[in-house]
Write a structure and sequence with these properties.
30% helix; homotetramer; four-stranded mixed β-sheet; 2 domains; 10 helices; 441 residues; paralog of FGE (formylglycine-generating enzyme); alpha+beta
């Protein structure tokens, strides 16, 4: 165990070098990664919307492109608009930009087809790259290129979440890359996008603790690197003494929770959570299903992932649980979830956003997003970005819980210790996990 | 006007020659027509389900194939089952066959993809054709081939209905064959599938009447030709004197109904109909929308069809109205809808199921299905076919209204004057129209 | 068994003497019966609406009064309108009369309170009685008094249906007249309104058959007595040979159906029925619940009625089943439900609308309404009554099934063999039962 | 304007004397107030449930009584349980106590009737008073009496909220005390419960500001007086400099917001709020409706309250707005809502929980509850009370927003500056208002 002094300003995360710069190299790299992810999916996979909260792959590919056409390639940057109807079809929620296809109807847009979306991407890419090369973009536009690339990285993870949800509804339980099975394919998506990396697996030993004295600390983004507006301003927060576990909750621990009646004991649950458990008949994490015959390994559950169906492995971190479940589990443990300030403090000292594929040892990054006890609210003095892009974050600041960290599906370079992800408390389709906090009395 | 004696048994429709025989020629013709219809639609169009009542094109193609594999190619006919999972995926509602993909989730099956469904069709076709050629099919199996071909013809019309519904939700209002616009294509679907044929258009002159004395008449299928079980047994019905109009209600007449406040006057409507009008805010037929600027032609409405959007033409028969609307229109006219017996009597004498593309002059066939005043109930002495195919018709005999005739989208050879189509009274996505009946006092 | 010649016109039901005449005696008798039924219910019981299809007792009492004020006491009959707002509050569905309180919101009208509704009834009664006495009512108005009394009798049965539904939701399972338990009360409702009368109970012996040759028969109301417009015109129908059982299906038979898996076998059910069984998880008639410990009597079920909870008695007719269940039961028996024409033919010969309390031996009347295989449609040549009262019946002629007969809760004098009751096929809260029909080949 | 130093511990609210002591005097006073409030409502008003979130008056009266019987009068306190079924009927949400009537079905319990609930109250009162008098209650039980009285006071306000909602659905727009109009009645509820007191009205002058330097402050309950568990522990919070307006937002200001298109401009709204505005078609506060003819006063709106319908008065504080509306209004003003810590800090210095009827000048108390920007979350180190009463607060700590202060309907003695009320962000039926906060840069 380590006990830690309250952090000072100098502990703030240092931005070494912006991993995503508004240049042609970053642009091509990010845009190409989207296409690599989509290449595993056929036109049929790419067009269907599996629920109102999810979007078709094709829509993700077009919407991220729309962002550049709408915000970067506007007058006076030289560019011929690809198709006027796309402004309507592929706007997500930017009220200031105009009317748009209703979210639950995104899956009805079978035309333009996938091939035409590819043309759209190519068309916009040419314009952006030319504008970058020829210096048509002023500082504000360059910022918007940078924002657009971060935006696209977010959608890369959303694309995988949504693909997983869609494929999970298929009674044949296909793996994300089943489609190409047995066929030569030069465009394989990185292995890391299919399931938590091997490094995340660890023995069933009890978790250690990172301990903190609390006091007046600073959180929020600092410095010149990129951050979303919701990470600002950096500000002071008072913390009581606390400790965080040094790894995520495992599937083995979750099985104990299930076996101890965790899903049947109302006293463990928030009222909304208990209502959800009962009305949706949850008895285990999303994508888990009972094995009809207990496996040789003793496993009673299998879980579905982008890699297909497999037995639950006790050492792996548990994934696809809602905030309600995370909170109930923590209460069952006699503990609680961390606040986002506590999490950030610990991650700055003990975690490291992965630059490459490997998660850090303490699993702050690169494994699974981690539910916090914090509601998603503006930081003191928050003001959204000017213009339509100001709708990016601020307008969602109610009825959501903050998640911190990043997941195996988060693109390299996208993670930050100040990053504030958010979802409603009942969400299970993101790549979510659980880290436990303790009061120190 | 013609006044008509009660029909005798000898008036019953004569089956000249079964248009759909259980032979290789019919098989290839019917199966090929499905593929020609689908060829207009890309993989994206073929996989999406636009509402629970509709099915994806891909599903229609696979389900009609499943029918042959399940019922015709069962033991001892030599055949290797293509994929065991298809029994689950592509069963529609045959409880006796086993569990199946829930209807509202048909659009989630993105895999098997379209190409694999084509392989499935080819695989089954080879087996059926070999079985036909080599005489592996006994009389019952041959009947099932015949039934399967009629079943597939029904799905050909459903495929077009469902495609129209899907495309109508696309804000770009694509035409069914837009996709191939400008590309050479040897597989064009017949023009007749796109909109009512030109022959259906007629001047705005008032309709004439076919008059009947009523009395004891016979309806229902007679003779050796093919019929569904719900057309049997042929039986006697007592009719009061009546008259039917000699053509369908036109769009021009419908515009008068609208302008006379037809959609705002509760006294014209059945109670369920009025409730539907108000809750769904109907003010015109499905697929109609008001023109922002009245057209040069004076048209105030446009209608969307498989051919795309176009101004409403007063002389054309009105399409895509519900039973509720048809009934309210008839009441507005001081008239009523025909019973199915009245319709059948008139059609036997004055209509002719089209053998080719042309509708008959009195529009009994080949234009639009015609709502009747009859609820869909079993004929006296009805008994469903034995086995799982007995679920084909009988179990739907409640809460549905009978439609008679056939539409421009009904495949040649599929129409009969004894044919009983049925849909819930609020349905507007079938190719429906209206014929008016009058009492004679 | 009796075999019967086709009935002749002279078999038509003879109206001996209108049991409900538009005179003060009938008026007071009918109006007083409503109050006697309501007297068992406290103000709390009278105001609550238990589901959108049901209405509060208070509403029934006020609405039936509104009918007289609206249609009988209009100008020039001398009458001071009690309260203008009541026109809105207590109109049921008469569009021609004007706007009204939305049906699902009837239970929100806690004011006017029960006492004020009693004042309303008294006020209107005085005017009607004075108008009758002083001869202010012309022939049309007298017809409307008669119609109003029949209307009120219908609502007396609805009042009991709705009270039963409400009380059934009370976890304490109160009996309809629990409220007055132990208190002296001179206003007891007749015993016959609480449960099927003792005469309905019969041994478990197999049912006998009434047999008919079929042929051309007449049905519908004939003569000078009162009938609703939907019983007209009397008309001819062709029937095939058939037989009806001479009593209703019993609870004992229903238990056999349950034990034979009746509620789990889709092949027995109409498709809509099967969907309903599964989504509502029906496993027995409405108001039945399993006994935790089988009773000494061997009973496994108890049923809730206006008399409270009691063990199911095998000899009693089964009640509170939907059309779907009745139809499935008949199919399980290898039989079917009667058409309404078959039922009427048999009832004219073998049943007798009760003049007093006793049901007829064959249970055509005075026990339970009997589901028929007939959809509720207009008779040939039907025309609704003129004016707003024309909305009484005609506008409901879709998506409903006809029930024939009458129940123990139908007021004396209200039953007729030509009476056409109707409810949607899934309804279970009316006092419904089942009579079986057979084809004769 | 006043600028204020950061508060010190000594600024914490001093509990002079518990206004609600666990003695006979307090008990009778609180219990009697409930009855006085209910006396305005007839049995019909008391039994109906107007929406799932609301409860019938009768239920409030019985549930608050159940609380004493369940928690205070348990063994070994001498008491005969009134009715075993009441444990089920009138438990609200205490999972630890056992099964209960489902919340949306509370309005179905017409029996026990109102009179029997009065008997229940009397019966339990006798036992509690005897136990108090004879010293049967240990310290823990006395605490539970105190908790029970605070609990009952909460329900007194809920009773009025729910009665207002119910009566607002009555098309005759009755006032809460209409029922007794013109009848002598010695039990009038205090005038203060009908609408904001006259003192709340003020001229349309711009609001002044209370200004604060921020810094490290303490919030939460301190000392020996009563508080709910959610007000604990008292703890430190860091605040940036801020200012609060010295009165609530008025109806006149709200009319300006409406006229400036406030309800039509998405950029002003949180995303969930905008969705709510559109789907529920909000265009003004709850209980407001447009005047058909602008009034002589110029008013364009009327508002419904417990006093009935009346023109909107510009000087009055706006009531019955949701958090979404409060937040949008603040954004329209270029400002924001206060955090709960900011509010508490200001209220301790400038507000005063009313001991009698009069609100404080700055309207912190006794006028309307005030939405804050804070999500309802546990204070650091929060632990719920032991036992079933621990379900009182903690399990609701997600998806709710904190409101601070108290309203005209809050019983005297119930308000505290540390009090944390909470409702979902879309709630409009509580007595809610808006106070604006400003950043100080």
């Amino acid at each position: 165990m380590t006990s830690t002094r309250p952090p000072q300003k100098s502990d703030a995360p240092t931005q070494r070098r912006a991993p995503i710069a508004p240049d042609a190299e970053s642009y091509c790299s990010v845009r190409g990664h989207t296409e690599a992810l989509a290449a595993r999916l056929g036109p049929e996979d790419q067009v269907v919307q599996s629920m109102p909260d999810a979007s078709p792959t094709k829509w993700h590919r077009a919407h991220t492109t729309w962002f550049f056409e709408e915000f970067v390639l506007a007058e006076p940057v030289p560019h011929e608009v690809f198709d006027e109807s796309f402004r309507y079809l592929f706007n997500s929620y930017y009220e200031a930009v105009g009317e748009r296809q209703p979210r639950p109807q995104r899956g009805m847009i079978t035309r333009p087809d996938v091939a035409r979306v590819t043309e759209f991407r190519n068309h916009v890419d040419l314009s952006v790259l030319r504008a970058l090369r020829e210096g048509h973009l002023d500082a504000r536009r360059l910022e918007l290129v940078e924002l657009g690339l971060h935006h696209e990285q977010q959608h890369q993870e959303l694309l995988l979440m949504d693909a997983l949800h869609l494929l999970s509804l298929n009674p044949t339980a296909p793996a994300y890359d089943d489609r190409d099975h047995g066929r030569p394919d030069g465009q394989s998506a990185p292995v890391a996008t299919v399931a938590p990396p091997a490094a995340a697996r660890q023995p069933g030993a009890p978790a250690g603790l990172f301990e903190f004295e609390g006091g007046l600390v600073e959180i929020g983004h600092l410095g010149a690197g990129f951050a979303y507006d919701n990470e600002l301003p950096r500000h002071q927060v008072w913390l009581e003494p606390f400790a965080l576990e040094d790894r995520l909750v495992t599937c083995g621990e979750w099985c104990e929770f299930i076996e101890d009646g965790g899903y049947q004991r109302p006293e463990l649950w928030l009222s909304d959570g208990w209502h959800t458990v009962q009305s949706l008949r949850w008895d285990s994490p999303a994508y888990w299903s009972p094995l009809e015959d207990p496996a040789v390994s003793g496993a009673r559950w299998q879980r579905y992932s982008l890699g297909g169906a497999a037995e639950v492995v006790p050492e792996e971190p548990v994934a696809h649980v809602s905030h309600y479940e995370a909170d109930a589990f923590a209460r069952w443990k006699g503990a609680r979830l961390p606040s986002e300030a506590e999490w950030e403090l610990a991650a700055v000292l003990h975690g490291q956003p992965r630059s490459a594929m490997a998660p850090d040892a303490a699993q702050f990054h690169g494994v699974l997003w981690q539910w916090t006890a914090s509601a998603y609210l503006p930081y003191p003095g928050f003001s959204p970005e000017a213009g339509a892009v100001g709708e990016y974050n601020g307008k969602f600041m109610v009825n959501q819980q903050v998640l911190r960290g990043s997941s195996f599906a988060t693109p390299a370079g996208h993670a930050r210790s100040t990053y504030r992800n958010f979802f409603p408390a009942g969400s299970r389709w993101p790549f979510t996990g659980v880290r436990i906090a303790h009061d120190r009395h």
